[in-house]
Amino acid sequence: MKSLKHIEKTIVRQQGQADCGVACLASLLANYGGRSRLERLRELSGTDPQGTLLLGLYQAASQIGFDAEGMEADSVENLKTDVSEPVILRVLIDNGPTGQRLQHYIVCYGWDATRQLFIIGDPAQGLLTYTTQELTALWSSRILLTLTPNASLQHQRDEQKAKRQWLFSLVREDTQLLAISTGLGIVTAGLGLSTAIFSQKLIDEILPKHESTRLMLGLLLLTFLLVARAVVNYLRGFLLNRQSRDFNNRIINRFYEALLYLPKSFFDSRKTGELVARLNDTSRIQRAISHLTGTVVINVLVVLVSVGYLFTFSGWIGLLSLVSIPLYGGLVWRYHQRIIDGQRQVMAASAHTESNYVDTIQGVDVIKATNREPFFSTITKAVYVNFQNKVYSCRGLDCV
């Protein structure tokens, strides 16, 4: 069994209630260094709004690079003695406010003999541990799917290369606008240092010497620089807005055109609200690109210029400022994965919430006919509370 850190890093969270099976497949792919989109796994496994059959997971696993085999164990003890690779278990879980027991899929990575616990990857909750008694109560079906990677497994580096090429093809048309906006941002940052320099000169030289003429000239120069900064900021904002408009139009057209050409089975397996939520999420791509090409580059240059200025003032202060950079880098590295996981959970919860709204309103005739308003009101409240809890947790990490 691989390290807990590797297992936790490779667990793929489900984007909807019906995605637990394909999320387990994606987790095992990542565990072996592979990669596949959930949309493709949904199509291969025949996932519908009610979930995935074990036969569908078997067929999908056989097509993405695994030798799969469905089995039925005698007891949980078989997982300790007869299973050497991670397996997918079909379990039954409680469905919160409805009180019903739902079919669910989890990944059993193995038995930790030291702690006497099973290492479980739950696509709904993440990395968990279960005692023998707890897993026995959960895994009443004793049905499992074994997966052994073969030579046809698609490695993650191939998927990442394809993603980079796709992203570069989208950004290529905006290269000139982004370059100009970055240059204007650097000018803005440089003009922003004028306030700090003027304050230092004011306190150290102008006020102690009572140089009123120099003070007036300095104020006029500072005013001119601040006005110039405002003008440059306006131009940069105008260019970024234009880039945002063009990029969003282009990416939505690509996404929607690709969506229309997907097979009918894809739409049968997804909810309308979830598709709408995914289309709305495309604006996050544009914001990320603008942030990387603008804010990050500008901040790096400002840090370098500021450190250079500090060295001219005092070598010890400059060295102290350089020491702080690795500390900040360590903090970023420490919380990087948590921020990514939190952001993914927020996006999944947002899609689930919007999907619930759209599907409930579309089915209002049935709800009225069967007098099920209290039931769906309770469900909607639970879904929205879960979304807000994810947003609250993610804001604590400053990732929204």
What characteristics describe this protein?
elongated, alpha+beta, 15 helices, six-stranded antiparallel sheet, 6 strands
What does this molecule look like?
The protein is an alpha+beta fold and 400 residues long. It contains 15 helices and 6 strands. It has helices at 4-10, 20-31, 38-45, 54-63, 77-81, 132-138, 156-171, 175-209, 212-260, 264-268, 272-280, 282-313, 315-362, 364-370, 373-395, and strands spanning 66-72, 87-94, 101-112, 117-122, 126-130, 143-149. Strands 1-6-2-3-4-5 form a 6-stranded antiparallel beta sheet. A hairpin with a 4-residue loop joins strand 3 (101-112) and strand 4. Helix 9 runs antiparallel to helix 12 (282-313). The radius of gyration is 28 Å and the shape is elongated. The protein starts with a helix and ends in a 5-residue tail after the last helix. The model has no long low-confidence stretch (mean pLDDT 80).
Assign a percent range to the helix content. Answer: 55-70%
Strand order of the largest sheet: 1-6-2-3-4-5
Please tell me what the overall shape is.
elongated
How many alpha or pi helices?
15
Mean pLDDT: 80
Number of strands: 6
Structural class: alpha+beta
Sequence-ordered SSE layout with sheet pairings:
Blueprint: H1 4-10, H2 20-31, H3 38-45, H4 54-63, E1 66-72, H5 77-81, E2 87-94, E3 101-112, E4 117-122, E5 126-130, H6 132-138, E6 143-149, H7 156-171, H8 175-209, H9 212-260, H10 264-268, H11 272-280, H12 282-313, H13 315-362, H14 364-370, H15 373-395
Antiparallel strand pairs: 1-6, 2-3, 2-6, 3-4, 4-5
